[in-house]
Amino acid sequence: MTERLTMLFHEEASTIDVPVPPADAVLSRGQGLRRKRRTVTAVVGAVAAVVLVGTTLTVAATLRGDSQLEPADLPQEAAYQQLGAWARGDEVHVGNHVAVVPGIRSLQYTSLGALVISSTDDAAAFSGATLVSPDGTTHELPYPGIAVDAAASPESSYVAYADVVDADTWRLSIVDLASGGLVYTSDPMHLGKFDSADIVALTGDLVTFYKNHEVTSMDVRSGDLVPLPDQGLFGQSGLADGSFVTSDEAGWQVRSRDDGAVLLSVPYGLGGRYDQSSISPDGAWLSVSTTDGMRVYEVATGDFVDLPGDRDVEDYGWTPDGHLLGKRYPNAASEVEVCDPATGTCTGLGQEVTSEILLVRAPGTGAAL
Amino acid sequence: MARAVTDEEFTEFVHATWPGLYRTAYLMLGDHGLAEDLVQTALAKTYVSWRKVRDREAAPAYARVVLANTAAAWFRKRGWRNERPTETLPDAGVEHDPTDHTALAAALQDLAPRQRAVVVLRYYDDLSVREVAQALGISEGTVKSQTSDALARLRLQLGDEVVPTTLPMTEGARHD
To answer: Which of B41, B62, B140, B157 to mutate to test the interface with A (most CBs of A within 10 A)?
Structure first.
């Protein structure tokens, strides 16, 4: 059905004026990059060796920059709830602590800490999973399926993932990180011609996944399927505990998971065609981009605060307790900050970022923000 | 595991893969300078990671995934999101000849960078949902939602004849 579109792509590609390959320049860049990586690997190895002398798990206290984090007097769990988690290079910042996980690809919250999906292969998105606790300790997770596709929630120790049986069959599995036990495994589900195994989000007691081309949800307590109500013109673009986000040509809607009723409607026009939105894990807040920063709505009342000045929805995720966590652009010099969505007050964490950072994805979008 | 590549072998590899990678990069980015930089970067990373390539035949596919992964990292940087060509959605009433590939080129300019990459990888490079997800470092759900959104926007520009409304969310040129 898309043959025409594919044909147009190939016609367009055939008109592209391809320059002569600069093979020598590519080789030179590759050789330089290889030398750089060897140097970095040696330094990281030295740091790891020092850490292993003291402990096999706790790395946070020995790492550069950890002691600079403020506020340091917050209890670890409270710090995790309010400051959340973010990554820079191989560093995972969780609450007041920093841990090292090579090849970080994505972060999610669980009630026990940050779930880190990682891969050290440039061509593979996922190859391993690690839990970084609020005290900075790291724990490799022995569930291969989690590394392929998973969903977690800041309110739960559960992680849902697609346990791929073979090329044509998968099972929805849920593991409790607190006990280490498998708490749910579905019957094997067949992958149809157009299907793929994909867990979208874990929000409240609902795990949402794709099944037979459609997004659907299952109550993890009862095993009952809970279809998502009206998904709007462009489908759901965000999931929260009790609500979800849709969009159409006019704007964004926050809808009730129960009946699809619109809880909040926000028109476009605040930031142009690339308007983006992000809903907090508890569904209490919706941030949207504006021409000068972002606007954060309280879903229940429609009240909003503006966070102006070089801020963008894509550069801000959420902490477990619903604060915004992110950084202003440009990337060249920006401090990570936590913002109160109720007041619009932002507090810098004293961590200057000179390259991109990775934040916890907004539920249901799967996007690295 | 493949043996270490010699400079001569890698130079030959660059010459062989450059045209295809460049076309993908240009379709993704719409800019010759950026496309050249992206392909150079991807091939340089491929050189460094050559030992991970299982065999010589798999190397072009490996380089293509590295290219997409590198592009995804670029998209997350601030500069890519400064592009806001218009304040409104495309006008559904605009007439285009869907048989003209230039209409596609114009329509691609109206997609957000990651949406554009997703549809190029799916409908030009013939990658599956899972392959696109792994290449861009995003979930399969995001690939599907981005594909759905992108196709809805392309449909407004190119019409139902090119982008049918009955398209299954997960359909691609090559299916999963």
So the answer is: B140
Given the structure tokens 């049918």, which residue do they identify?
A: B164
Find the helix or strand (DSSP H, E) in which B155 lies: helix B140-158
Whether residue A88 lies inside any domain: the answer is no
* Contact check, Cβ <8 Å, B89/A268: yes
- d(Cα A316, Cα A17) in Å, to the nearest integer? 39
| Six-digit token string for A333 | 């010099």
- Residue A188 falls within a domain, yes or no? no
> What's A333's domain CATH number?
2.130.10.10
Q: In A, residues 283-342, which contact B (CB 8 Å cutoff)? A: 312, 314-315, 329-331
Domain that holds residue A248: 230-349+360-369
CA atoms within 13 A on the CB side of A269: 5
Crossing angle for the helix pair B32-48 and B7-29, to the nearest 10 degrees: 140
* B7, B78, B146, B151, best to mutate vs chain A, most A CBs in 10 Å: B78
What is the tens place of the pLDDT at every residue in A231-241? 665 556 788 88
Question: What residue has token string 């966070």?
Answer: A307
Provide the pLDDT for residue B90.
42
| Cα–Cα distance, B21 to B19 (Å, whole number) | 6
Do residues A237 and A247 make contact, with C-beta atoms less than 8 angstroms apart? yes
Contact A303, A291 (CB under 8 A): no
The type of residue at A66 is: D
Instruction: Report the alpha-carbon distance of residue A123 to residue B45 in Å, rounded.
Output: 10
Task: Please tell me the pTM assigned to this model.
Answer: 0.60
- Does residue A251 lie in a domain region? yes
Say how many domains are in chain A.
1
Given the structure tokens 């919706």, which residue do they identify?
A286
Residue whose token pair is 């299916």: B175
> Which residues 6+ apart lie within 8 Å of A14 measured at CB?
none
Would you tell me which residues 32-91 of chain B have a C-beta closer than 8 angstroms to some C-beta of chain A?
32, 36, 40-41, 43-49, 52, 62, 65-66, 69, 73, 76-79, 81, 83-89
> Which domains are present in chain B?
1-82 (1.10.1740.10), 85-176 (1.10.10.10)
pLDDT tens readout for residues A179-221: 888 888 888 877 654 455 567 788 878 888 766 556 678 888 8
What interface predicted TM-score (ipTM) does this complex get?
0.84
Residues 6+ positions from A75 with CB-CB distance below 8 Å: none
Query: Could you tell me if B84 and B44 are in contact, meaning their C-beta atoms sit under 8 angstroms apart?
Result: no
- What kind and span of H or E run contains B121? helix B113-123
